[in-house]
Design a protein that fits this description.
This protein has 469 residues and is mainly alpha-helical. It is built from 21 helices and no strands. The protein has a single domain, classed as Sodium/glucose cotransporter (Up-down Bundle), CATH 1.20.1730.10. Helix 9 packs parallel to helix 20 and helix 18 runs parallel beside helix 21. The longest helix is centred in the middle third of the chain and has 49 residues. The chain is globular, with a radius of gyration of 22 Å. Keywords: Membrane, Transmembrane, Transmembrane helix, Transport.
Length: 469
């Protein structure tokens, strides 16, 4: 089947954009302080918390990369497996959420500083900004895919429009407005996918017809991937989620531990619907459109469904892309403001000035994200890179704060450096040997360095103390 643009679908995107801008503008009037802007005044109840966790986590990484690209390029079973790391990650966050709230920090860097010192704060801020700008960049490109699909507009111009929308919504009301629009987007996506799965299977001729039209390897356990390559796609999302500053900020923004627990349970249940649904739709898309960009697999199906169903799905996809983009952009901007500007430039800045600096940081980082996306060949490639930079550079050190009392500054900081360095060497210098994502190298290196350096320096300190005694 040949892919054709359907300009009528643009109405659904337009209505969604107008709704989000209206809500964001209205809620921005309730922002009275930097705490309101960054942590929504710690006012998120379980319903809104569930929606914002869901929408923040499931963005272009799933809609254009992740489940979508893997199902289209490699097979259904590998794509279905991608939900497992997310479920594990949500379970672990459920355990540590009360500890996250106890720290009461705006950023993960603040948590790391409390355990490892100011050097850890500086290094982690750099890593978080580096990774999050990458994540924001492929949300922009995902929106470009949508406009290309509906109007025939170039992906580049569509990406620019997506960048403007993401930057505006992040800047206007911060988490106070982002959380609310996230919640709306999350429930829109669940409804859209539930309607779409049976519809697209009927259009595609049923299960047997779909299976006949895809490569035979796409029905095997690992698809066209080796086992180690499949692991390379599974681990990045797990290690990003476990240390994700975005999730930590949202959990810290809840009204209390009870709301946090309910929100996370709802998030987990929603992921059991969303992730498999995306996989099934994209797998059917491979049968219908065998030669399109893998990143467009899910969105392409909107052009052949009844206009109402296709429009709802496309609006839902756009909503997840936009909400994920403005969430990660806002989070990265808080690092620039609270970990760098307030620490080294103007420690005495007023609350009003802090808010202004955060908004300016959103614009600057958004512009950088727009520039960066042109250097990556696909959404999936930048997704794996950004996830690994964060997952290897931040997560082992953060989890050690909660689960290993013995960990020290030398171990934590060394782990962060090792995680980022091994990622960059594998991806940039060595150009990804054996077509393996760097996570299979970088995360084990970061964990080993954390353990070895902590034990070595702890024993050394003990020996020194014994000699002095």
């Amino acid at each position: 089947m040949e892919l054709q643009q359907n300009v009528h679908l643009l109405w659904f995107i337009g209505l969604y954009a107008v709704l989000m801008i209206g809500i964001g503008t209205y809620l921005s009037k309730k922002v009275s302080s930097s705490s309101d802007f960054v942590l929504a005044g710690r006012s998120l109840g379980p319903f809104v918390l569930m929606g914002t966790l869901l929408a923040t986590w499931t963005g272009s990484g799933s809609i254009s990369g992740g489940e979508t690209s893997v199902a289209y390029s490699f097979g259904l079973i590998p794509s279905l497996m991608l939900v497992v790391p997310t479920l594990i990650g949500i379970g672990i966050l459920y355990i540590v959420a009360p500890k996250i709230r106890e720290f009461g920090k705006y950023t993960v860097s603040g948590i790391l500083e409390a355990k490892y010192g100011s050097s850890a704060r500086n290094l982690s801020s750099f890593i978080i900004i580096l990774a999050y700008v990458g994540i924001v960049s492929y949300q922009m490109k995902g929106f470009g895919f949508i406009l290309n699909l509906t109007t025939g507009m170039s992906v580049g111009l569509g990406t620019a429009i997506g960048a403007a929308l993401i930057i505006f919504l992040a800047m206007i009301g911060g988490l106070r407005s982002v959380a609310q629009t996230d919640a709306i987007s999350g429930f829109l996506m669940v409804g859209g996918l539930l309607i779409t799965v049976p519809t697209i299977f009927i259009i595609a001729g049923g299960w047997e017809e779909i299976v006949q039209n895809v490569p035979a390897s796409h029905m095997t356990t690992t698809g066209d991937l080796t086992t180690i390559q499949l692991i390379g796609y599974l681990l990045p999302s797990l290690f990003l989620l476990l240390g994700d500053q975005n999730m930590y900020q949202r959990l810290a923004s809840s009204t209390g531990d009870r709301a946090s627990r309910k929100g996370q349970i709802g998030w987990l249940l929603a992921m059991l619907i969303i992730s498999p649904a995306i996989s099934l739709i994209s797998f059917a898309s491979r049968s219908l459109f065998p030669s399109i960009d893998p990143g467009m697999a899910l969105m392409a199906t909107t052009t052949i469904m009844p206009i109402a169903i296709g429009g709802i799905l496309l609006a839902a996809a756009a909503s997840f892309i936009i909400t994920t983009g403005n969430s990660y952009l806002l989070s990265a901007a808080t690092n620039l403001t609270y970990d760098l500007y307030l620490k080294y430039v103007n420690p005495e800045a007023s609350d009003k000035l802090q808010l202004k600096v955060t908004k300016v940081s959103i614009v600057l980082l958004g512009a950088l994200a727009f520039i960066i996306i042109s250097y990556f060949p696909s959404v999936l490639s930048v997704q794996m890179y950004a996830y690994t930079v964060y997952g290897a550079g931040i997560t082992p050190a953060v989890l050690a704060v909660f689960f290993w009392k013995r960990v020290n500054a030398a171990g934590g900081i060394s782990s962060m450096i090792a995680g980022v360095a091994s990622t960059l060497i594998w991806e940039v210098v060595l150009q990804k040997p054996f077509d393996l994502n760097s996570v299979v190298i970088a995360v084990p290196v970061a964990i080993l360095v954390l353990i070895i350096v902590t034990l070595a320096t702890t024993n050394k300190n003990r020996s020194s103390n014994q000699l002095l005694a």
